[in-house]
User: Fold this.
Amino acid sequence: MTDISRIRRPELKDKVMSADEAALLFKNKMIVGSSGFTKAGDSKVVLKALAARAKQEELKVTLITGASLGHGTDAALTEAGALSKRMPFQVDRVLRDHINKGDVLFQDQHLSETAELVHGYIGEIDMAVIEVTYIEEDGSIVPTTSVGNSVTFAKLAKKVILEINTAISPDIYGIHDIFLPENYPLRNSIPIISPDVRVGRKSIPLDPEKIAGIVFTSITDAPADIAAPDKKTIAIAEHLIHFFENEVKAGRLTDRLLPLQAGIGKVANAVLLGLGNGNFHDLTMYSEVLQDSTFDLFDTGKLRFASASSITVSAECYNRVFNNLEKYRDKMVLRPQNISNAAGIIRRLGIIAINTAIEFDIYGNVNSTHIAGTHIMNGIGGSGDFARNSYLSIFVTQAASKEDKISHLLPMVSHVDHNEHDVDVLVTDFGLADLRGLAPRERALVIINNCAHPDYREELLSYFNRACELRQGQTPHILEEAFSWHTRLRETGTMKPAAKAEAKAPKAEAEVCA
Amino acid sequence: MTDISRIRRPELKDKVMSADEAALLFKNKMIVGSSGFTKAGDSKVVLKALAARAKQEELKVTLITGASLGHGTDAALTEAGALSKRMPFQVDRVLRDHINKGDVLFQDQHLSETAELVHGYIGEIDMAVIEVTYIEEDGSIVPTTSVGNSVTFAKLAKKVILEINTAISPDIYGIHDIFLPENYPLRNSIPIISPDVRVGRKSIPLDPEKIAGIVFTSITDAPADIAAPDKKTIAIAEHLIHFFENEVKAGRLTDRLLPLQAGIGKVANAVLLGLGNGNFHDLTMYSEVLQDSTFDLFDTGKLRFASASSITVSAECYNRVFNNLEKYRDKMVLRPQNISNAAGIIRRLGIIAINTAIEFDIYGNVNSTHIAGTHIMNGIGGSGDFARNSYLSIFVTQAASKEDKISHLLPMVSHVDHNEHDVDVLVTDFGLADLRGLAPRERALVIINNCAHPDYREELLSYFNRACELRQGQTPHILEEAFSWHTRLRETGTMKPAAKAEAKAPKAEAEVCA
Assistant:
C-alpha cells in the first residue's frame, strides 16, 4: 500500500504515519475541512480513526466537506459523538437521524457557497484532510476522484493531513482543472466560456510546511447505488425528451441542446440515458457530479464533453473509467465546486438544470430537502446554484408514492428550497408543466392538470378554486388548510381523505378563477 | 417641447407624431416592452395614450418593463382594461388590486432575468416604447434616467416608438454603460471587475428601420417618496452600522466596506445616511437604484462611485443631480438591469446587499412580496438577484407594526422569497441577528432573542421549544400551528393572543433543544 514514489518532494517522506497517529493530531473543538464530494475522493481512514479516538475521549469537531462522504464515515463519526456541527451536505442515515434529533447541528449550504463561507466567518480551518493521488515535487497535490472544496481547504487550513490513495493511478493527472479566484471577496472573472475550457493548473497548490501527516491507503470510493430505470423514471424521461424535441422544433434549442446539469439519482440517470436514444448529438455537461449515465453517453458517442466536481459511479463503471482513463481523459474535467457550481458561469453557459424534488406545490415552489417541513433528508446541494441561474430550471419527481398514499404535488410545500421564480419546468410520470412566462394562477392549472396523480387532481383543483374564491390574491391560498395534506398523512397514514371527509369536500369545478 | 435637433439622423424626422397617433400603432394582444425602472425613464405619454384608446375598444397587451412605472401609468392602463399580463415588477395600488383579484395576470420575476425570459419563450416583443434623451446620427439612442431592459427591447422588438424627453439635458450623454451579452444563451463573460468599470458604449444600438414613431415630451420623472428617518429606521441603521464596525475590527471588512446594494425605501436610505456619519470612506455602490441617500453620500465625500440601473430620487434631489451633472457624471454609471443585477458580478464583487422584508421567520426565511401568503405588494424585484449571490445578504424590517398588532417575525413566513440559505443577517429596530455559520436551531434562538418585539418573544420561544419537543427535525415546526398568527390577525385584528388563549399557552422555556 505504501508507495513512497508517490511523495515526489523528498523531505516530506518523514511525514508518513498511520491513520491512528494522524488521528492524534486533532484536538477537541477543531474546525476540520475534508475532501469528498458525493462519496468520491473522501478520506478513507483518517476520519474513521478520528471517530475511533472520539469513542475514548471528548473530541468533537465541526466537519466541513465538499459534499457527502462514503464508507459509512459520517455514521462512524456520528456514533462516536465526534461531530458537533456538519456542513454543507450529507446523505447518511445515521447522521441524518442525529441531525433531526438535534444532536448534531447541520448547516445546509448551497455547494457553491461553502468556499465563500469558510473565508472568514465560520472560523479558521484548523485541519484539512485531503485524499490525493500523489504529491508533486513542488508540494502541490493531485486530487483523486473529486475536487470539492479541497483547493480552499489547502489554502486556508492551518495544518493538512494527506491521504495518498494508491488505488488511484497517477495517470489521473490532468483531469483536474484547479482554479482559485484570487483576492476574495473582490475578485476577477472566471474565464470559463464553455464546459471544455481549462483555466487552471493540474494540481492543488499547498505549502509543504503545513503538511502535518501523510497516510497511505488503497481503498476505492464507495460505489454509487444505481437503480435501473423503472416505469416511472422512464415516463419522466420520455416527457422531458419530448419537451426538448419540441424546443428544438420551436428554434429555442438546437439538437446540441445546451450544457446539461443533472442531479444525483435514478431519474437524472434515466433522462440522460434517454438522451442517448434521442436525435441529439454533440452534447455537453456542466454539472457537479458525473454518474454512470455520463459515461454511457460518452460510449454512445452522443456526449462530447463533461465538466463536474466529482465522478460518482457504480463499481462496474468505476472500473470502466479508471481502467480506461486514456479513453475519457480528454472528454472531461473535474473542477473545484465553487467553479463547477458558480452562479455566473451557470448563467453564462445557459445551463439546462435537471434536479429532483421531494415535493412541489400548485404554484411551482419546490421542496428538495425536508420531509413534512421538519426532517431533513440530504440537503439542498447544488440544486439552488443551478436552478437559480440556469437557462432552463427543471425539477422532476414521481407524482405519488407509497401505494399512492403520498402525493408529491401539494397545495403548499412544507419547506421552500426553490421558489416559483426559479422553476421553469416540472415533470412527473404523469406529465410536464412548462411554467415559463406564466403567472401563479396560470401555473396552478398547468401543474395540476399536467403533473398531478389522478387520485389527487380533483382535490387540488378544489383547493385552488376555493382559495381563489375565499382569499383571492396573486397566489391564492387558504392558510389554515395549506398543510392539511401533511397533517392528514401523519394522522391517518395517507394524504387521501377518508370516505367521510371525501363526501364533505366540495366538488371540483371545471372552470377556474384565473 | 418639440426639439428637432434631438433627432440627429435626418430621415427619422418624418417619424414625429403625437402620442395619440403613436397609440394607434398598437394592436390587441401585442407584447409590449417599455422603458422605466422604479419610476425613472418611463414612458410619459404613449402608454397613457394607449390606455385612453383601450377605454374605447378591445385592446389588451402584455406589458413588460424594467421595473415600476410612475405618473399613474399602471393605474391608467389597469382602469382602461389594457393589461392582460404585466411583468416583472410594479408598485401601483390600482394595478395591485386588480392583480390580487385575478383580473390582471402578473409574473413576478427576478429583475436580472427578464431579459433572459424575453429571449424566446415569452413570445416576440411586438412593440417597444422607450424614453430617450436624443437619437444619434447612427440611429442609436441615448437613454434618460434609467436603462432597465431597454437594450434588450431595442434589440428584440419588431417595432419601436421613441419618446424624446426634452426635460432631460443632452448633457446626460456618457452616464450610461450599454453592454449586451452576445450570443445568448451561451455567452462570454461580462468584464466588470469593479463598480466603476465601463464595458460598453454610451448609447443603445437600434436599427432605425424599426422606429415606428417618435413622440416628444417634456415631463420629469415622478418623484420618489422619501420619508425622513424615524425612530425605528434610525435604530435599524444603528444596529447595522455597529455590525459593520465590528466586521472591520474583526478584519473581515475594511473601512471601505464592499460595494453596497440597497433596496428602495426609508430603511435603506437611513442606513446609507448612517454610513455617512460612520468611520467609513471611499465607499462604492453596485446597486439597481440610486436614491437620495446616494447623492447625499456623494456630497459628504464618503462615496466614491455608484453603479445602478436607474436614478429614482425626490424632486429636490432630481434638480440637484440633473442641474449639476458635471459634478456627479464621473462618479456614477447606469447599466442595463441584466448587468446591474447579474448574478456572477454580484458574487465577483462581493456585494453587501441590504433589502427590506415584509416578514421573516424564526429560521431566517424571508417574505418580500406577499401579505398573508396571498396578496402581492410589489414583487421580488432585484432582492433575489442580490441576496443569493452577495457576500453579505442582509434583510431589514421593523419588529412589529400597526400599534404592534402585527409581528414581522413569525413562526413561519406565509410566502418564501429568500430561504435560509440566502439570508446572512436580519435586522429589526430591536437588534441584529448574525446567522452566518449557524444551523436552523441556532438561528431560531439568535433571531428570537435579538430581533423579536418583546411582546412576541415569549410566544415565539414557546413555539420553537414545543416544535423541538413535539416534532423534532432539522427545522422544527408544528405545521398545524405554523400560520396561526396570520389566521389570528385575520380573525381578531391582531397577532397577539386573546387573554384566554394567553393563559392556555405554555410558558416559554429558557432552555432550548438545540
